[in-house]
Amino acid sequence: MRANLGNVEEVRMASRVGANLPAVGGFNQAVILDAIRRAPEGISRVELAARTGLSAQTVTNVSRRLLAGGVVREAGTVVAGVGKPRTLLQLCPDGRFAVGVHLDPSVVSIVLLDLAGELLDHRVLDVDPASTAQHTLDEIAIETRAIIGAGRVLCERMLGVGIATPGPLLEESGTVLNPPLLPQWERIPVRDLLSDRVELPVLLEKDVTAAAVAEQWVADGNRENFAFVYYGTGIGFGLVLQNEVIRGASGNAGDIGGFAVGHTDASGRSRPFGESVSPTAVVPRALAAGIRLATPAQRTGGFHLLDEFTALVHAAESGEPQASVIVDQVIADLANSLVPVANLLDVDRFVFGGPFWAPLAGRALERLPRAFAQSPYLVGAHDVVFEESAVAADVAAIGAACLVLDHALSPRPARMLLAHRVTV
């Protein structure tokens, strides 16, 4: 399966120009790699110079290094007017690799990507909520080494591991603080602990942000401003504005669980959005209402939250009245939450994904646009698109791996600063 990482419109290249300064060679290399990545049929050195704004000599020097390092390859020639044919450069897919890990309170997913974004392996580990963080990290490390070994990947070609976890995070230290659905993970320095275990560089990212990164990598030219609605064990938003992923001051942007949705509980307290729509709250509400989602034997035998949530949606689609009320209220609350996000950020697209989205997708995408458009609080001058994620596999795990690739391939002026904090 290919993630179509090169399918990005030409105009996005306009702002990615290099600088002919000796001190920014790494940035220039990223500029050239990014241009080659976005030209899957190949691109000549002359075209690279024109597209990146770099001198012909800089392009030649960088291209030589990339060829020697096995990151790009020569892919034939093309005749363009008079003069000798131009040699095309292409990304070499097996030149580098990255692993992505997604730690969800219900499950751990691990993927292996090559430099072109090809999904080479995808594995899932069950998570026991009672397990310590150290034990789970041991399991992740064992499976990560196995997935690399099974792919026959040379260690020297591994760029690193990206791990996506629920927030909040301490970005500087790579620490998971106190994720509400992972009580065993309070103040765990995930980045360093996993790096020690797998002996590779590790990047830590919030799961909703990683999902937005994955979507941006596979996106076509219509996704410059969008919110990724991540529907997992909990819920959150990943944000992309003007083609840039928004992380916030501490890397914790996108936490919407505390939004008030207008409902009140028995004590008269406004119900937070997370309590209204998260599967961890919706499934107990359904069980309390007497909706049968699993037999006791199934539940004792490991009938997981995802299975119960799926059963609830199926019951609603089958016409079970109480199930329909609960599921449709989730969709209505979801629509209400999108309105202030659209008003505040002026996004023109909502993309939905995450491990719990698939069961809800058909019913939700049928009802969401109408409920959103009918909101009296909507202030908008353009249409808003609602669609599923283009990433077929676990989007947060794919995004975690893409973060590692993105750091190697995508130029950012911030890399020109000596204090830039990412060191993969």
From TrEMBL:
It comes from the Bacteria. Gene3D superfamilies: 3.30.420.40, Winged helix-like DNA-binding domain superfamily/Winged helix DNA-binding domain. InterPro entries: ATPase_NBD (IPR043129), ROK (IPR000600), WH-like_DNA-bd_sf (IPR036388), WH_DNA-bd_sf (IPR036390). Belongs to the ROK (NagC/XylR) family. This is ROK family transcriptional regulator.
